[in-house]
Design goal:
CATH superfamily of the largest domain: Glycogen Phosphorylase B
Oligomer: single chain
Helix content: 25-40%
Number of domains: 2
CATH topology of the largest domain: Rossmann fold
Number of helices: 13
Number of strands: 11
CATH class of the largest domain: Alpha Beta
Low-confidence stretches: none
Structural class: alpha/beta
Distance between the termini: 50 Å
Largest sheet: 6 strands, parallel
Amino acid sequence: MSDVQKILIIRFSSLGDILLATPLIRVVRDAYPSAKIDFLTKLEYRDVLKFNPHLSSVIGLENSEFSTLRELGSRLRIQQYDLLLDIHNSLRSRYLRFRIHSHKTRVINKRSIRRFLLVHFKWNLYHGIVPVAERYLETVRFLNLPIDRKGLEVFLQEGIVGATTSMLDKYHLDRCTYVVGIVPTARHFTKRWPVEKFVDFGVELAQRHHVRFLIFGSRDDREFCSDLAQMINARSGTSAAENLAGALSLLETAAAFDFCDVIVSNDSGLMHLGAARRRKIVGIFGSTVEEFGFFPYGTEHTVVENKMLGCRPCTPIGRSRCPKSHFRCMRDIHVRDVVRATEEILMKKTTHESA
């Protein structure tokens, strides 16, 4: 399709999915350097793409009301897009596809049947593990565009980097042997390693190494993360843990990640943000599995999980409670295994610096 001049990509949410779409954005821009490429997402996620140089514009969806979708569809139809890539494939995106009426449309294959069979019957019909980022790239396979495997991207302005650096100066991170980022929260309960496990993890690592912990989360997580930092410090007899939850914007969090030697995280949007900054990741997976494709992409990582449970996975996205009431997918993940995975990454840093 050499005549493509206008392209629209649709992915409404969530943070991780938007970041996982950045390889698609980059590959499409490389193929069509002079095209107008727009990205439609929810207003709350627009910032993560705000400085992406591969995009012409980021369109924010204010709400999901029918009148808003209808008006937006009419407005976008005027653009006469040559190619529409729907990597959300929901009722809302289908409605907008109908309203926009692009010349050519391609839609993500979510492997919905395989996902349903794995969740409800534990029949694993996935043929290997395909990252979601590469499933998004399947929508342009008909164009014979390459998978560049350069990873995820999030772009920062110098002002954001400078302000974040100045803010972190007071923690004297350069005096520590290691800086470990901790993301102890997630949107859904079954994706959260219990807080007492994170405390034990922090205490053990603080007693074994000269380490500083930076704890990340949203404004709603501020109190939880503050309690976690205080418990780590009290039990380890140090001042190793600092709570940054709610103190940073999303892009400032990305800038702060750059100071971390490793990020220990639940399966969450911030885990993917860390991957987008090429941080090394220790991902803790509970009710979800790697077959769904939402593991750290394009960066060195280790996934720690309980592979011995017959009830796992119980969901592709997370639940508000354990349907079996035992929550063994997270409770049975031992602190020593997360410490070991973290130390293996940190030791590589030490070996590299001494070489």
